[in-house]
Design brief:
mainly alpha; 9 helices; single chain; 0% strand
Length: 234
């Protein structure tokens, strides 16, 4: 029994912790990919708000594809790091990134409200604004799905506050301001309707994302035998 115990303990004392190394390595790879993709997305959004959308539409689509693939790669590696290798540090970093994404979405939302109030945009820019907001929310939800037991309800509160702000701006623009363009009312209420719907769904927490989370969890379920469970606890 003593010989068997030494054979079990020696690799843990003097061997290489492969699981820990893989956990750290995948965390840094994922973090690098997510940071690069989110930073590049920020640069692209600034270009669009500076009215650079119509100058090179094909180039913008290529940039979106590259950034999307980079984010997806980082998200998948992060999922492996957290779920497969039980990384305890990376969820804390992901939470910070999730709050940073929320701040970015709130800033973008306020910027879009400003653009809508000035009514100095065309149809292409309107759809670009809507896609940008949905893209920011997609990033936030994707980061949310990386962490088990993460709650989206606190993230809905700032968005609801900005929803009320937009409603106030719409009333001022079409009731109190001079020469409102009634044809652009569709754009204002489309943005408002989409954002208030998403904010309300996040706040109600009715489990829309539960099937997706369950599918993710099923990918990392371990089929352990009673003998393996004993070995893990020793």
């Amino acid at each position: 029994m003593a010989t068997l115990q030494r054979k079990v303990e020696n690799p843990r004392k003097h061997g290489v912790d492969t699981r820990g190394m893989l956990s750290i390595a995948t965390m840094f790879v994922s973090l690098a990919a997510l940071t690069v993709s989110m930073g590049g997305a920020g640069k692209l959004i600034l270009d669009i708000f500076d009215d650079g959308l119509t100058s090179n539409l094909d180039g913008i689509l290529v940039k979106i594809l590259v950034l999307g693939l980079t984010f997806f790669f980082g998200w998948c590696i992060g999922l492996v790091s957290i779920r497969a290798f039980a990384n305890l540090v990376y969820p804390i970093i992901v939470r910070i990134y999730a709050w940073a994404s929320l701040v970015a979405v709130c800033i973008l939302y306020i910027k879009v409200i400003q653009k809508l109030y000035l009514q100095l945009y065309d149809g292409m820019h309107f759809w670009a604004y809507l896609i940008i907001l949905l893209g920011g929310l997609f990033v936030l939800i994707s980061l949310h799905l990386l962490i088990e037991g993460h709650d989206l309800r606190p993230f809905a509160i700032p968005l609801l506050i900005i929803n009320v702000l937009q409603l106030f701006v719409i009333v001022v623009r079409y009731v109190f301001a001079k020469n409102p363009n009634g044809f652009m009312l569709f754009a204002d209420f489309t943005i408002f309707g989409v954002m208030i719907l998403i904010s309300a769904l996040m706040l109600m927490h009715i489990g829309i994302l539960s099937p997706v989370r369950e599918q993710i969890n099923n990918l990392f379920i371990r089929n352990e035998t009673p003998g393996n469970e004993v070995n893990e606890t020793e």
